[in-house]
Specification:
Blueprint (H helix, E strand, L loop, with lengths): L6 E2 L9 H12 L16 H18 L5 E6 L2 H13 L5 E6 L2 H10 L4 E7 L18 E7 L1 E2 L4 E2 L10 E4 L14 E7 L10 E6 L16 H6 L9 H16 L2 H22 L3 E3 L10 E6 L5 H10 L2 E2 L10 E4 L6 H17 L3
Parallel strand pairs: 1-13, 3-4, 3-5, 5-8, 8-9
Antiparallel strand pairs: 2-10, 6-7, 9-10, 11-12, 12-14
Helix pairs in contact: 1-6, 2-6, 3-4, 7-9
Pyridoxal-5'-phosphate binds next to helix 3.
Length: about 350
């Protein structure tokens, strides 16, 4: 029996473009017309080596990275980058500054503390991470400033890079390729694939090579960025399928017109949904207006006793994945690159009908 395709608003793993899913499915049975599945070929085969090279080229092209950057496809999730960034860039007697805009930043700070002196440049913890702090302090002798570009759980997003001349390290896990990025301001950006770039299993890291080789301590071989730079992300067996599907998704982004085109598509979708949240008397947005995310739209229903009924109404319309993160509650509609305008229209429609039915 053929199930009808749902409108997928999950935060991650998340929606992928239909055309990518079809190509990915066909490669499972016959990849590149090899008469083999992509799941059963050597990662050293020319067909896969080409996939890895294409993935690296696309990642650099879509971020405008010059030759001073290397694109790596690693394992261990974005969470491993919380420690790998500090381990590779910071000496124990050096200082790095961090901005705390939520759960993921907090985790990054905890791990970085294992490798050096970590100072807090700003935090929005005082208001439930509803905003992006603009005033920075303690940057003094910091080697870099770490920030989280889009706060997947709270629904806030940087609309301007942090105001500093320090090299930035950016966690772009939930908004990579959703808009152009000024890579020249960065030492490293990283992104777990499963939000806006592909399936779970690989993490993209773009690292500026001249930031490396300056730490005194030993780094385990697999955790040293230079190992992966030297081996083209093939030091050990890479997550073949995750890299392949990420490559297909990046190719799709390029075909759509790249991050600029994605940015206008995403702005349009976000504007539609926030407009409904602001106009509909039943709902209230979670994040402060000026810092609202165009990827994860967080909102609450004013009468909490209607929460389950709203989830039910969504579900009847084929909408899944809009329950908020367990730490925030309410609702979260993730509207990544692959979410069509039609999906957002459907959600807005359900919100309007629901509000009429419930006398608002
Ligand atoms: C999901 C997420 C992470 C964690 O990613 P993993 O790949 O599960 O380790 C880190 N940062 C942000 C911003 C995220 O959204």
């Amino acid at each position: 029996m053929k199930a009808t395709k749902k409108y997928n608003f999950y935060a991650g793993p998340a929606i992928l473009p239909e055309s990518v899913l079809h190509q990915a499915a066909s490669a499972v049975t016959n990849f590149d017309n090899m008469g083999l599945s992509i799941l059963e070929i050597s990662h050293r085969s020319p067909n896969f080596t080409k996939v890895m090279q294409d993935a690296q080229l696309l990642a650099k092209e879509l971020t405008g990275a010059g030759d001073e950057f290397e694109a790596l496809f690693l394992t261990g999730g974005a969470s491993s980058q919380f420690f790998m960034t500090a381990m590779n860039l910071l000496n124990t007697d050096e200082t790095a500054a961090y901005i705390n805009t939520g759960t993921w930043s907090t985790k990054a700070i905890k791990e970085a503390k294992l490798f050096g002196n970590i100072v807090l440049a700003a935090s929005s913890e005082d208001d439930g991470y509803r905003y992006i702090p603009k005033q920075l302090s303690n940057l003094g002798n910091a080697k870099y400033l770490h920030y989280t570009s889009n706060n997947t759980i709270y629904g806030t997003q940087y609309h301007q890079l942090p105001d500093t001349t320090l090299p930035l390290i950016g966690d772009l896990s939930s908004d990579i390729f959703s808009r152009p990025v000024d890579l020249n301001r960065h030492a490293v950006i990283y992104a777990g694939a499963q939000k806006n770039m592909g399936p779970a299993g690989t993490t993209l890291v773009l690292v500026r090579k001249d930031m490396l080789g300056r730490v005194k301590h030993q780094i385990p071989t697999l955790l040293d960025y230079r190992t992966h730079i030297n081996k083209g992300s093939m030091f050990n067996t890479p997550p073949v399928y995750a890299v392949y599907v990420s490559m297909l998704t990046m190719r799709w982004v390029a075909q759509q017109g790249g991050p600029e085109a994605m940015a206008s598509h995403n702005s349009k979708k976000a504007a539609m949904l926030y407009k409904e949240i602001d106009n509909n008397p039943l709902f209230t947005g979670y994040a402060r207006k000026e810092d609202r995310s165009k990827m994860n739209v967080t909102f609450n229903i004013n009468d909490e006793t209607l929460e389950n009924a709203f989830v039910e109404a969504c579900s009847e319309a084929g909408i899944v994945g809009i329950k908020g993160h367990r730490s925030v509650g309410g609702f979260r509609a993730s509207i990544y690159n692959a979410m069509p305008v039609e999906g957002v229209e459907k959600l807005v429609d359900v919100m309007q009908t629901f509000s009429k039915q419930h006398g608002a």
